[in-house]
Specification:
This protein is an alpha/beta fold. It has ten helices and eleven strands.
Length: 316
């Protein structure tokens, strides 16, 4: 902690900051300045930030901040060190799986958001294909043209080729065209429930049946719909089946920080069973620092979002 004489109360942010200050500024002055910096930001409280901010109201926001701050410094990388986070992640996965009609075999992990969930699904099915189908040198993903661009990012990072099927007039993928794109190098198929450009649900049951016949993993990107569609269905709206009730659906991604109203960043990636999830893990046993194991992409896993995700589901 700095002594009072080393703290500067002068704070002029008119010019761009390019160097760490020689003397630290007064925390209260910094917070006031930061509040001022927000004046030009988008008005998310006024509902002007679709896909960026999802809020269940100010009271819930304040509750999330408290839950998040209780685990502000904890790190979920080592579940043995922070068993509370391990429990909350496990229970959040179980609650999410239950909402999406998964049985007791469904497993998964929390991630930092929909993009990481999609990256992990692509990485998992690539690695699973490497083990089960080593003759596939140029793995491919077959998707609708409307699929989220996170799949493009995943294909770029992990060395897969994207094959895109056209859309019908209603915005859903043309399943017959998608079927023609499937080949010996296809390691996964993906579709959306719903997709972003038009907000429509791809014909999940039809694609799942096709994937099951070809014994190809099928991922449903329900990052925006996973915590919305089940409630619409409960209210009596006609929602086509898209979740683990559909045979052939291998995995689902759903964002807690969207209509799960959790704090950023929090998403869940769910798989039918551990035989698939194990291909997501990264483990190194010959590092001089010892055994290193990571269930998802980051090393450090901030405890705050895990705690807030659990708290959001429990509170709402």
């Amino acid at each position: 902690m700095k002594s009072p004489t080393s703290v500067s109360a002068d704070l002029d942010l008119a010019a761009e900051v390019r160097e760490i200050p020689a003397k630290g500024h007064d925390p209260k002055a910094l917070l006031k300045a930061m509040q001022g910096m927000r004046e030009g930001d988008a008005d998310w409280r006024g509902g002007r930030t679709f896909s960026l901010v999802y809020s269940a109201g100010e009271e819930h926001q304040q509750f999330l901040k408290q839950a998040h701050n209780l685990f502000f410094s904890e790190n979920g990388l080592n579940p043995m060190a922070f068993k509370s986070l391990q429990r909350m992640e496990h229970e959040t996965v179980r609650m999410s799986a239950g909402l999406l009609h998964g049985d007791s075999e469904v497993v998964g992990t929390l991630t930092s958001g929909g993009t990481e969930s999609i990256l992990l699904a692509v990485k998992t099915y690539r690695d699973m294909a490497r083990r089960r189908r080593p003759w596939v040198w140029r793995p491919e993903i077959v998707v609708p043209r409307s699929i989220h661009v996170a799949f493009d990012k995943a294909a770029h990072l992990f060395g897969l080729r994207m094959r895109r099927a056209p859309l019908l007039d209603d915005g859903r993928v043309d399943v017959r065209a998608l079927k023609r794109l499937i080949g010996r190098n296809t390691v996964m198929i993906a579709a959306s429930a719903p997709q972003y450009p038009h907000g429509v649900i791809d014909p999940i049951e039809e694609i799942a049946a096709l994937a099951a016949r070809r014994n190809i993993p099928f991922h449903v990107d329900s990052c925006i719909g996973g915590f919305l569609l089940p409630w619409a269905e409960k209210l009596g709206y006609p929602v086509p089946r898209f979740d683990f009730r559909v045979p052939g659906v291998s995995s689902i991604s759903a964002d807690l920080h969207k209509y799960g109203y959790a704090a950023k960043g929090a998403s869940v990636i769910l798989y039918r069973n551990m035989n698939t999830l194990k291909h997501q893990f990264f483990i190194s046993t010959d590092w001089p620092g010892g055994i290193y194991a990571s269930p998802s992409l980051p090393g450090t896993r901030p405890g705050g979002p895990i705690a807030a995700a659990w708290a959001a589901l429990m509170a709402l």
